[in-house]
Design brief:
alpha+beta; 20-stranded antiparallel β-sheet; 20 strands; elongated; disordered N terminus
Length: 552
Amino acid sequence: MSEKKSSFLIPVIGTTVILAGGIAAYMYLKGGTESSSPLGSAKLVPATALMATYIDTNPESWNKLQQFGTPQAQQLLTKGLKDFNQEILSDSKISYEADIKPWVGGVMIAVLPPEAKKVSQANLRSSEEPNILLVVGIKDKLAALNFANKLKEQKNVKTQESDYKGQKIIETKGQGQPTYTTVLNNDHLLLTSNKQAVEKAIDTYKGEPSFATKEGASDILNKSVDVKNSLAQIYVPDYANMVQQLTALNSQTRQLPPQTMAQIKQVKSLVAAVGVDDAGLRLKAVVNLDPQLNKFQYETTPAKIVGQFPGETFALASGKGISKTWQTLVEQSKDYPELNQGLQQARSQLKNFQLDLDKDIFGWMNGEFGFGAIQSNQGLLANVGFGGALVLDTSDRQTAESTFTKLDNLAKQQSLNVAQRTIGGKNVTEWQIPQQGALLAHGWLDDDTVFLAIGGPIAETLADRKGQALDQTDTFKTVTSSLQTPNSGYFYLDMDKTTTIIERLAAQSQPLPSEATAILASIRGLGVTVTSPNKSITQMEMLLSLKPSTGK
């Protein structure tokens, strides 16, 4: 919603509520309502909606956030909310806390396609925007009426009333385009900038198909996603159709090729929710897939590869089965001429160096893998403060060793010094730059685990680890222990260590703003994982782990 529209939202709501009832209805209005829910709101949204987001206004859930963060971060959040309220409620004597919060229930924001007459088949590349319909639950009718009465003297908007199938629609005109509102059954207020959208919502209220009964939507609305203290949910019942329509409406976006649409059609629907629990902000998403179109073979991991990384690791992505993922990509490239051409060129170039892309590079990567960023201030890494490492399990050590031998020979041809060292009882091969140290190193941590490190100091840390392994550190356990298992691996970020790197790099150009530092200091870390019980469902879980409040 544009800035001009938002400045008129409050008087619009007030005017509508005034016309929706009167003092004579006091006893009825005093009653509460249980209709402020995703399903209750979805029953008023037309079935043509492409997606819907439901924002839960339960104060207990939002207040839960107050248990986290530094005083500086909480002050920033409070100031942001205060500034937003002042902008919305400018030129009025309305208080959000006293006048609006008591009666506003959950809010559903639905995205509807534009009117058919504006987007014809002859002009799919239209610049029309989708229509946005807000369905606002009225949880306390008396409080809503009191708020409306307080707004009677507001004179910054002009209103005009019309009737549609016995339902009053209020057209509000201000500096921007008109806004249309109506109240249905005295427990939901509908708000949109498109009159046809509110008329379709009234049709839905009177019996036309709704988002709640739409194929795909009814399932995800009823099943929802299990998060504690839910703040918001997102519902997309037909993912491919949504992408196709929104792409067609954007004149700046090229039309998606058939091959891309075929990939998108693997996703049937998705539902996601974000909530707050004792660990921080948690996002869960469930993606429903077409098992006939889904070609990806999901594999769970024991996550043992995490134990090969040192506690100095501040970022990690892990998983299993790079070789199978590569095979799937190669198979799918047959339907993508440009991708297939790129693969063929890569194969040809590597053949010039006696390397087979499929066999020598990816073929032996059939076990767990982990790619990590690791803190270090030594050698070539002194300026940046970190290096990287790729650690891989394989059941084909012979091919892996052959590949590294070929790579070592290529390094020698580039005038790099390839030397052998023994570190922690392990043989390590280094690619050394004269007078600067090792640029890259590789070696075996055990019989089936090989590493490739950027920076000699990282190789030393991996091969001869002195301190804790990453999976034994308090931060890693705190960030990942509550994520679903078994899973396909982790994406992990230690925010304290990451912030140290960011501040170090930023100091070389421009220091981080104090606001950014305060926010980062409130975050312990980020953990993401994915599971897939079968080829029809993929589940993603993300935890933004927050630090407990340190008081004022």
